[in-house]
Amino acid sequence: MKRTFLNFKLLTLITIGLMTACSSDDPNETVGPEPDPDDSRWITIAGAKMGDAPGDGNGGTLIYAVSSKAAKDPNMSIEPFENGFIAPSNRTARLQSSEDGNTIYNISYAGDTGGNYTKYTVEGGQTFTPTGSEVSIAPYVGTAPRWIKLFDGDQTGAAVYVSTENEFDEDDNYTRTDATIGVVTLDLVNSSIKEFQEHSVALSAEEEANGYYISRIDMPVLNAAGDKLYIGARLSKVDPATAESDSDYEILGSKTIVLDYPSLLNPSVITSTVGHGNTNGYRSINAFLLDGSVYQANQSDPEGSHILKIGADNQYDDAYVFNLDDALGIEDAYILAWRPAENGKAVIAYRHSGSAEGVAGAQGFFALADLNAKTAQKIDAIPYDADFYLFQYQGFVVDGTDIYLTQGAVGQNGNIYVVDTETGDVTKGAELVNVVGSHFIGVF
């Protein structure tokens, strides 16, 4: 018997963490989850609705919250697309959650409300109660901002943008491409702007003369000392002879922009000799602080994605080599999203050269990795499908050594899975009911 979570508008939430049992003759009875503060927390499931094509996620984002007990229960059936709360956003919302799961933060992406920051108290089901004031970061970083919540106790968010312009000498010869970055920090508690700075960020003279420039930035993260902000970067290139875009070029060492924090001043660029390719990620957090160092994934590496390490000296630790191709015995690994627990074990969403081409893109997989041992193994307990699309995946929940994730091919039902990173055991949890063309983008 499955229990189905329905509309919560008429529901009075029951107190302190018990799930109302459904009657045997009414499988659709409405239930009201509330997490026990001693052993449960909210798990917010996010789904991206189809816009024009299956898996594009452009039809908006819906969220629905259940207790972690319910999330682990395979007898539960959850329908985010039918009963969920519509997170304000013209396209896929950029969501973050508090460390305890009780608050959801959202910045709308694109459209008339693009760049609007809102905060919600999670109350179960489709009930997300606005709290605090709205604030727009659009004047600082535009209506389609890349933003992330810093790991500073739910105090600060950081959003970034970059604009580029080719420069020429007096004889109209190309000299370099200027990359101007903007960085704004947002007080998540008081819903206010903390700091904003713009900088022209240069590469080496040789790299710029060859047409390289920073074309996209994302995924800021604080160092352990709390005095430096790292920002992931993607490089692009023009042909210096023509100033036209060049798509066939040598991939340089992975780079990260470093700023003083909280002033956001004194930009510099550090370069890895281990990994090559981009460090800006896409929609999921791409760099994490762990045991005094920052661990960062890279993408589009010719040798397959790496997990890179930035040490306490604010430089890449090139003695740390963790290549996902080598660890998994695959080729062209591409880390789509990932999340470590405090024990140094991580769940990684990835694709590779053997991925099937599904309705929305390349098939995705999950692996369990050990950052200290630099090993990884595909999680076989999770079912895979050619249409299991993880490129837009956003969120994992870490609860102790457990990591929660969502599984479900585009347009197909799936489940929540919980990975015990210490033992490797995998629990199949609640069913996730899908609708045509849509997909699940994680938990928060």
TrEMBL record:
<feature type="signal peptide">
    <location>
        <begin position="1"/>
        <end position="24"/>
    </location>
</feature>
<keyword id="KW-0732">Signal</keyword>
<protein>
    <recommendedName>
        <fullName>DUF4374 domain-containing protein</fullName>
    </recommendedName>
</protein>
